[in-house]
Amino acid sequence: MSALAERIAAEIADRGPITVARFMEMALTEPDLGYYMTRDPFGTEGDFTTAPEISQMFGEMIGLWAVVTWEAMGSPAPFVLAELGPGRGTLMADALRAARLRPQFIAAARIALVESSPALRARQKTTLAGHAPDWFDRFEDLPGGPMILLANEFFDALPVRQFVRRGAAWHERLVDAAEGHFRFVTGAPVARDDLPTVADEDAIAELNEAGTVLAHAIGRRLAVQGGAAVAIDYGHAMSAAGETLQAVRAHDYADPLTDPGSADITAHVDFAALARAAQAAGAQTFGPVPQGWFLAALGILRRAERLAEGKDDKSRAVIETALKRLIAPSEMGNLFKVLAIAAPGMTAPAGFEAPAP
């Protein structure tokens, strides 16, 4: 067993089987050993590729969205331009480049990155050289004031609890250790009012409590201090039972319980649950809308045309392939969705002015 697997097994031996959320938390963020704490997992040489790494167009559209949103807020100066889980810093770098069309925006922005990984902080520092960002361990640590918050593929990596239906009751799904391996086991019945009242035998339900707590905190912050947030991730628009826990290693699916710390572990985002949490804190929400529709509404088709102008056939093909991957329904266009959280009284942010077709 790896050092991280031994640490997880030791906790199970001491306390008994642990929740799926605890296993996921340790596998991803355990100090010095967790997946995100020890590597740069992005790109073709890593385990997965996110939208900002596919094309500069993605970050540029988000940058334009931020500028328009800032103007709708009354162009406050200064304001906090924050990102949760900034990866390599690519999205923020592309967004800031596009935002240079409004120098006042750049001058007013205090760039704040919420990142716990030392490895990724180092990469972000290189990518964003010249922008002087500040780093914070938690959303709650961000400086006060009006804020525009970006979160791309952040909520999917937050730990989820799983529950399995047995007869007329839900039981928590737990992780146990036996003979050097981890396995799922079924815990005692639980009584919760946030699980489906009707479900098939052996159905799995997932709750991202860390995500809803964070969405509530974001909603409260925006309701009191002003601003808007955009969350982009893969998931479902309506709450429903279903197992979505998955692991990815070297761009291929892997067993989430095998060799923890060596693969990314995620679950689909329940956007309806995030919206309810933000609304309960006093904010308003818009969407979710499909990523493809959102990016098209922001002008990504025209941006692709401009990038392709004067290019050779090979370069145009690269741009067209990236565009298709970002917006096509068969690629990221429908599975990935976009949710906006905003202060009360703000008009619908760009990309949310009308319902998606």
Protein architecture, described:
The protein has 357 residues and is of the alpha/beta class. It has one domain (3-159, 208-252, 260-300, 332-342): 3-Layer(aba) Sandwich (Rossmann fold), CATH 3.40.50. Helix content is 38%, strand content 25%. It contains 13 helices and 16 strands. It has helices at 3-15, 20-29, 51-54, 56-72, 90-99, 103-108, 118-127, 209-225, 271-280, 291-298, 300-308, 313-327, 329-333; strands at 18-19, 79-84, 109-114, 134-136, 147-152, 161-166, 169-178, 181-190, 204-207, 227-236, 246-249, 252-254, 264-266, 269-270, 284-290, 336-342. The strands form three sheets. Strands 2, 3, 4, 5, 10, 14, 15 and 16 form an eight-stranded mixed β-sheet that branches. Strands 1, 6, 7, 8 and 9 form a five-stranded antiparallel β-sheet that branches. Strands 12-11-13 form a three-stranded antiparallel β-sheet. Strand 6 (161-166) and strand 7 form a beta hairpin. Helix 4 (56-72) packs across helix 5. It is globular and about 60 Å long. It starts with a helix and ends in a 15-residue tail after the last strand. The relative contact order is 0.15.
